[in-house]
Every structure is written in C-alpha cells, then in structure tokens.
Amino acid sequence: MTDTGTSTDATEVSGAASGPTGRRRPSARYRAALALLGGMAFASVFAFVLTSLHGQARKPPLLRPAGIPADVSTALADLMQLSPVPHAAAPGFSLTDQAGRTVTLASLHGKVVVLTFMDSHCTDICPLVSREFRDAAHDLGGTASRVVFIAVNVNPFHHGVADVASFSRAESLDSIGTWHFVTGPVSALRPVWNAYQVQVVAPSPNKDVIHASLVYFIDPAGRERYVAAPMADHTAAGMAFLPAGQLSSWGRGIALVARDLAR
Fold first, then answer.
1. pLDDT at 243
2. Is the pLDDT of residue 131 over 90?
C-alpha cells in the first residue's frame, strides 16, 4: 500500500528525491549538510595537526588557589590538591597510640599537626602516605620536633594497639620521632571519622578498608589550615604505586606546609 501523504519537506529531511532512473538522489539540503560536515571534519583534522606540531605545551595554565604558602609552587599545590580551609578549631579526640599512650589533640597545642587516616592492615595507598610522611620528617630538619605526625585508624576489624604498632614498624613510621598511630574502640573512632569527613567502608576483616584519603594541616593554635588529598596509581595487577619523583615531591610539599605553619 503506497503512502501518498508524504510532504516535500519530509522527503528532503530523509535526503531522497527520485531521479529519472529510479535511484534516489540527495536533495539540495542533504548535499549542503554533507558539505558542512566535510568542512568541519577537515577543520578538526587541521587543528589537530597544528596542535601536534606547535602545541606540545598547550595545557591551560594551572590556577593557584588563594592562600597557599609562598614556598609551595603552584605545580606542587596542584599535585597535592592542596587547599586552604576556614581557620576553625580542629575536631578533638582522645585515642591510644602504638605505644599504648593516650593522645589528645588538645595536648598537642603549640605544635603543628599533620593528621591523616590509615588502615592498620592497608596494602594500597597507606604505605605510600607512610613513605611521604617519612620523607617529610626528614626534609623538616631542625623543625621536625615542632611537627607531630598522626594517623587515625580506620580499620574496624583490626583496631587494637598491636595492630597499629605492627603497621608502624612495618612502614618504619617509628623512625619519625613525633609519630602517633592512634586507635580505640570503633565507638570512639567513628565520631573522629565523621568529624573529619572521612567515609569508611570495611567489606571484611581480610580486605583493605575503603576510605577517603585526606591530610589535614593543623596549626599550633589547634586550627585547621589546609587539606590535601593523597593519590595513587595502580599497576595492571592492582598494586598501588607513585613514581619516585611524585613521592619525593609529596614529602617535600608536606614539609613546606608544616614549616610555614611552625613559623
């Protein structure tokens, strides 16, 4: 059955008009669209070639967040995802460290505190942050005694003193003279996670805990000043790593921020 109600416009949109041989030839509108698309494709290829030839460093310039310490370069701030935060009092806590000592944030007033969150059984990003902390403590030199490094345990299955002590030894974190890996009952840990906006997902006792990786910089008056976001790449086998240059840059960046706050 033939449809006799087809309009001329509809025929043009579909790109059809009957020629003398019965073949359908493109309409003028269709041919114009093809020409436009061809021109756009050529322009795209031409632009790509120009960029390849002349634009090896055509990345947009990095934007420097306001309030970053002058000693920290814009590239380093970008690597660390370093951002200033409102100068509000850092949430307090009272937990137990790897040596069984009670540690409160209030007791550390007068010191710069570099605070992060670690899984006591972590095999992913936490060992990388551990290396960055060790490098930072070394880079601090004579200022190291005025800077305290703290990690709060995020593992609800392995939250004993022995767990945080074992991790501290394995990652040589005890080489930092002011190191504390604090832990406690989950009922005491969870409010600290929440206060510092650290989400924690613990699938099972034998899996790495999924948690937000953040580093807070707290000034000697107990106020939050900056936050940074550690990162990791992963091999095809799923192993976390960072190029050596980025690891050392992270350590240097932590030391620069901490030294600035210690002045």
1. 92
2. yes
Answer left, alpha or beta for residue 56, where phi above 0 means left and psi between -120 and 50 means alpha. Answer: alpha
Domain assignment of residue 178, given as a range: 74-262
pTM, two decimals, is 0.76
- How far apart, in whole angstroms, are the C-alpha atoms of residue 205 and residue 199? 17
- CA dihedral (255, 60, 241, 253) in degrees, to 10, reads 0
Return the residue matching tokens 């310490």: 69
Cα separation, 242 vs 215, in Å, equals 17
Backbone angles phi, psi at 244, to 5 degrees: -55, -35
pLDDT, the chain, mean: 84
In sequence order, what are the residues at sequence separation of 6 or more whose Cβ sits closer than 8 angstroms to the Cβ of residue 63?
74
The per-residue pLDDT for range 206-258, each reduced to its tens digit, is 888 999 999 999 999 999 999 999 988 898 988 888 899 999 999 999 999 99
Q: Phi then psi for 63, rounded to 5 degrees?
A: -95, 130
- In this structure, are 175 and 117 located in the same domain? yes
Residue 3 lies in a domain: no
Give 50 or 181, the one with higher predicted confidence: 181
What CA–CA distance (Å, rounded) separates 24 from 27?
9
Nearest Cα neighbor of 96 from 146, 165, 171 is 165
Whether 147 and 236 share a structural domain: yes
- The helix/strand count (H/E) of the chain reads as 7, 12
Q: Are residues 130 and 184 in the same domain?
A: yes
108 and 235 part of one domain: yes
| 3-state secondary structure (DSSP) of residue 211 | strand
